[in-house]
Amino acid sequence: MKSNQYVTLLALCTTSLLTACTTLPTARPLHPGEHQAGVSLGGPMVNYGGTHIPLPNAVVEGRSGIRYIRLKPLDINYGLNVTAAAFGIAQLHLGTSYLLLDENGFIPALSMTNRLFVATNALTPQDKAPGTKQAWGAHQLAFTASYMIKNQLIYLGLDQYTDFGLPQLLLTPSLGVEFAPGHAKDLKFHLEARYYAINKTKSLDTVEWTTHPRGAFGFGLGLSYTFGQRGCSCSVK
Amino acid sequence: MQRQITTALAAILLLSSGCMQLDGAVHNARHCSILGPEHCEDESDEFSKLCTPCDEAYTWDISPPWPSNFLENTDLDRLRTPANVTQHTIKTEDGEGELDLYVIPSHGEHTQTSNITILLQHGNYAGIEHYIPRVLILHELGFEVIIWDYRGYGKSLPDTTPNPDQFMADARQIRDLADTLKNPPNKLVIYGMSLGALPSVEMALHNPPCAMVLETPFTSFAEITKTNTATSLGSGFLSQGDYENDQKIKEYTNPLLVFHASEDNLFPEPSVRKVYDNAGSTEKRFRIIEGAHHGVSDGVPETAGFTTYSDMLMFTLMPACQ
Question: CATH code at B85?
């Protein structure tokens, strides 16, 4: 029976709409007074009848530097998943990023991000079967190492996503670059490859991710604009 | 700032009133109007060949390439060809569909089964043509069989698949209609394969049969999400929530037989067992067929063998439907 495609769309969207989205890089936390607004697009790729489809998962978000802790910047980040909204889901994230280590020669800068994702379909006016107005939540812990090379940022990250309803080890490495085209230092693009849940294998092929049966490989890209009065740059080279 | 926040919240609420649902993404139909060489002569899997255009009748006289040991312990060389098959076109209650339905009479040689009608809800791929081998098995066992195509499948109209409301409404309509189409004294068994478990459970709740058989059944969106994406997202996020069979079946109390294929690549045993465990039935059985896959070529009866499959079926149906 050739039936292994039939819930692909549902399940891929389920995942992509939630933790498996691309967000603005947090390799370098913003300094107090700095703000960044941007949009990211991307998520895992799925094999749908032999065609590998990237996911149209759009996130509008912002970052704001708020303070220094031990001379290292701490910022907050916040966003709305626009694609999820089209499905009647209010999905938001809120988190912080902190610079643990400055870049020093061959030693990369290291940042830590804690982020909470929450989603609910309770706001949708649609008729639903009883008991299907629900909420969902997950936590993301990310460590990102990065080098700044001629004003272009290259970063390598490792994330753990913890779904509160189904906690387990879900490691997600990523590799990305953030660059400012021309002289527009405040306007930045980023490209990122991300291997979602690289430690997970599954025997089921109801959903066949591009890297089936291990995890799900994906791409993301984004555009951001940084503004505001910059604070001390003493902790970031 | 307050105005900006208010505007942002209003935008979120507006966006959150979106109406996209993915229930329709479950379907994997093949309508007769789209069939071409790739579905017939170019298709290497004999069980997956779809060769009947819309204006031609299905061929019931076939001899599929069964697994070598399928007919072991029987004196059969092949399964008999159904006779006097009647075709019915059922106008749906919303007036938007015409469902293709067939009644395959019992051959009458087995008195134990000739007074039982099986209302068969097929799986997700293609349409009736793909499931004729399964009809032959049930017919050989002596049952009367009723099989129908969902909207968008086989020769049913329209050529687009149903939304959840239509799918469930059609199931209820066919369930009631089956009482008028079957041989009058017969008891009715509802049999759902894979996706067919969705209309089957709906039918069973609407108008309970003497027994229900679910083979490698569709479990629920929530289970599918959990087992394929490692998230605990509830079913209501992207669907109407009408396809949560593991919850709906709590209301079903008549006898139940659930077949699980040990090599099922779509619905794992814990999910299928949840459907079974949640059923309100006091008379119920859970059968695992070792080595069986999801489908019709190497599925439950093909792997279990004709005799074993027959025994398992009779063990539940005989006391319940005699």
Answer: 3.40.50.1820
The reply to whether A184 touches chain B by the CB within 8 Å rule is no
Q: Lowest mean pLDDT of A79-93, B6-20, B29-43, B194-208, name the range.
A: B6-20
Tell me which of B56 and A47 has the higher pLDDT.
B56
A9 or B158: whose pLDDT is higher? B158
d(CA B32, CA B126): 9
Q: Quick check: A87 and B238 CB within 8 A?
A: yes
CATH of the domain at A219: 2.40.160
B2 domain-assigned:
no
What does the pLDDT look like over B172-216, one tens digit per residue? 999 999 999 999 989 999 999 999 999 999 999 999 999 999 999
A15 at B interface, C-beta within 8 A: yes
CB contact (8 A) between residue A1 and residue B296: yes
Looking at residue A205, its pLDDT comes to 64
For A80, the closest chain B residue by CA position comes to B12
| Separation in Å, CA of A126 to nearest CA in chain B | 7
Structure tokens at B242: 């009408």
Compute the distance between CA of residue A40 and CA of residue A20 in angstroms, rounded to an integer: 12
Q: How many domains does chain A have?
A: 1
Separation in Å, CA A40 to CA A142, B57, B219: 17, 53, 34
Domain range enclosing A135: 3-236
CB contacts of B238 in chain A (<8 Å) are: 10, 13-14, 17, 87, 89
- Chain B nearest C-alpha distance from A24 (Å): 20
Q: How many structural domains is chain B composed of?
A: 1
pLDDT at A6 over 60: no
Alpha-carbon distances, residue B287 vs B8, B251, B284 (angstroms): 54, 21, 10
Length of chain B: 322
DSSP B295: S
pTM of the model: 0.81
Q: Please state the ipTM of this predicted complex.
A: 0.71
Chain A: closest CA distance from residue B112 (Å): 31
